[in-house]
Fold this protein.
Amino acid sequence: MAKLNIDTDYIAKLAELLQRTGLTEIEISEGDARVRVVKKHPPVEVPVMAAAPALAVPPAPAPPPPEVLDATHPGTITSPMVGTVYLSGEPGAAPFAAPGEVVKEGQTLLIIEAMKVMNQIRAPRAGRVGRILCANATPVEYGEPLLILESA
């Protein structure tokens, strides 16, 4: 019987390589010699959970119907462009206009940012802000209703 010449330092280095890289096995062959090192994981016990009895859960209330934006209102101001709407000049600042507030003709109502340009949307006439139909820092489309300006 031939005597095997095993380099245990070499095998230890391969095992260290497995540990360092997270591999689970490595095999090296040179000529007729072949070394294979495999890292075995201990078996994992998976706890068995008993099914809990089903509880009678009342159905969730239906969400409210989506609010219909009345773009036909004569005081509706629509977006003249695609962009992002801002209700104030900077974060944390008071809004340009609030519901119920009386505004003058030409007063800034909001800003629409389009292509890094801040475009002021001004009141076309004096009036009272009825409702603001858009949320701050949200995208808007061309023609989308922004707010309703009622007669003062």
